[in-house]
Amino acid sequence: MVEFLTPAFGDETVKPLPALGVSAQALNYLNYLIAEPIPAIALYRSGALVQIPRPERFAIHKLIVADRRREGSDRGKSAKDRAQAAFLIEVLAQDRPDELAEAWEDARSRGPRWRKRLDASLARMAETADRLTKLG
Fold first, then answer.
1. Which range marks the domain in which residue 91 is found?
2. What is the CA radius of gyration of the chain?
3. Is residue 74 assigned to a domain?
4. How far apart (Å, rounded) are the C-alpha atoms in residues 97 and 136?
5. Would you state the pLDDT for residue 9?
6. What contacts 24+ positions apart, CB below 8 Å, involve 116-123?
7. Quick one: which of 123, 28, 131, 37 has its CA closest to 82?
8. What residue stretches are annotated with the Nucleotidyltransferase-like domain (predicted)?
9. Does 109 map to a domain?
């Protein structure tokens, strides 16, 4: 099964994508994740060039998504999102600290709703919060 997603800026509804003949679920915060993608090779048959999210944006986005999934049927996914974010942030803080710091500041600068989501996840992740604080 393939899910089609599209950025939302407010209302998270299903929106038609006529060029593809499908509908897509609109999601807030997705625009942050897919901004400034990087090229990569998908290992399938002879390979395919694809665009993927920047790892530092993916890590920060996981913090936001983890807070959104904190309650209800997605609670298990929230823990997985936090674990993925923690792992990536640990590695990126060593290997790409400037890019991680830039992604972190960009997300925090997007307003109080963004900061609230980030802070809520980091309240449950002391080591990761400390690591991000030490970046800047």
1. 55-133
2. 16
3. yes
4. 9
5. 87
6. 116/67, 117/29, 117/63, 117/64, 117/67, 117/68, 118/60, 118/63, 118/64, 118/67, 120/67, 120/70, 121/63, 121/64, 121/66, 121/67, 121/81, 121/82, 121/85, 122/63
7. 123
8. 1-107
9. yes
Q: How many Cβ atoms are within 10 Å of 69's Cβ, its own excluded?
A: 19
Write down the pLDDT at residue 74: 77
Domains: count for the chain: 1
d(CA 123, CA 1): 34
Taking the C-alpha atoms of 8, 13, 19 and 20 in order, what is their torsion angle to the nearest 10 degrees?
A: 110
Cβ atoms of 136 and 106 closer than 8 Å: no
The structure's pTM equals 0.88
What is residue 73's predicted lDDT score, i.e. its pLDDT? 80
Tell me whether residue 7 is in a domain.
no
Is 64 part of a structural domain of the chain?
yes
pLDDT, tens digit, 9 for 90 and up, residues 65-109: 999 888 878 788 999 999 999 999 999 999 999 999 999 999 999
C-alpha to C-alpha distance for 20 and 29, rounded to whole angstroms: 22
